[in-house]
Amino acid sequence: MLARTPSRSPGPLARALDRFLINRAAVFGICLAVPVLAMILTYPLWWSFKPNDIDLLAMNSGPSLKHWFGTDGVGRDVFARVMEGGRISLLVAVASTLLSAVIGFLFGAISALSGRWADAVGMRFVDLVMTLPPVIFLLVLASIAGTGIWPTVLVISLLSWPLLARMVRARLLELRERDFVVAARGMGAGLPHLLFRHGLPNSIDILVVYATLQIANAILLEAGLSFLGLGIAPPAASWGNMLNAARSTAVLEQYPWQWLFPGGALILAVLAINFIGDGLRDAFDPRAELN
C-alpha cells in the first residue's frame, strides 16, 4: 500500500493572511479603502470638472446632479477638489512614509549591528529627538522648510522616523546573537551585507505595519499643517487647506458641504488605513499563534 504523504502545514505568510482575513475591521478597511482609492486615482477620466475650474455663476451652490458635492466660494467644484486633495494627501503620506522608513530602518539597524559605541551614540540621538515636543518641533520644521508638497514630505519624515528606529534596533539586537549572523561576521561579512541580507528580511513585518499606520498619521499631519497654512498652499487642493478655507462662521453655518465632504473624506481615509494597519499588526504578531 502506498504510504500517505503528510500534509504540509501552511507557512507563516499563509497563517498571517488567514489571521488578517478573519479580522472583520481589517476586511472592512480594505473594502472601504479600495473604492475610495480607485475614485481618487481615476476621477479625471470620468469627472468633467477640474479642481481649479472657476464658475462665477455657481458660487456656493449646494450639492446637485451637476456638482455632487456642491461648489465653494469662487465656484470651484468641491468633488473635484476633494478627489485632488486625496491625491496630494496620499502622495505626501506615501512619500514621507517611505523616506521615514528608510531613515528609521538604517538608523536602527546600524545602531544594532555596528557595535556598542555606535549603538550608544545613535540611541542617545534618538532619545534627544523623541524628547522634543512634537507639535513645536513640527511647526519649527515647517516654518523653516516652507510650504509645498516636498517640504511637507521632508517635515513629516523628519518627525516620524525615531519610533521605527527603536523598533528595528530592538528586533536586530536579538538577531545579531544568532548563529548565522555570528557565522557571517566570522566569515568577514561587512555591515551592508548584514543590513540587507539579514537585517532587512527579518524586519519586514515591522516595516509593513509601520508603513501602514504611518500613512494614516502622515495624512493627519499634512492636513494639520495645511490647515495652519504651513503645508500645501492654495490654490492646490488639500483636505487641510479646504477645511481652512471653510473655517469662517458663515461657511460653517450656511455652506456646510464645503467642510463636511473634505472632513468626511479625511476621517474615512484615516479610519480605513488604521483598520488595515491594526489587522496587519495582529496578523504579523507571533503571539497570535497562541490565541
Automatic annotation (TrEMBL):
Gene3D superfamilies: MetI-like. SUPFAM superfamilies: MetI-like. Residues 86-277 form the ABC transmembrane type-1 domain. The keyword Protein transport applies. One of its GO terms (biological process) is transmembrane transport. Pfam families: BPD_transp_1 (PF00528). The keyword Nucleotide-binding does not apply. The chain crosses the membrane at residues 21-46, 88-113, 125-143, 149-168, 207-237, 257-277. Its main location: membrane. GO terms for cellular component: plasma membrane. It is found in: Cell membrane. Keywords: Cell membrane, Membrane, Peptide transport, Protein transport, Transmembrane, Transmembrane helix, Transport. It comes from the Bacteria. InterPro entries: BP-dependent_transpt_permease (IPR050366), MetI-like (IPR000515), MetI-like_sf (IPR035906). It is a multi-pass membrane protein. Belongs to the binding-protein-dependent transport system permease family. This is Peptide ABC transporter permease. It comes from Rhizobium grahamii. The lineage of its organism: Bacteria, Pseudomonadati, Pseudomonadota, Alphaproteobacteria, Hyphomicrobiales.
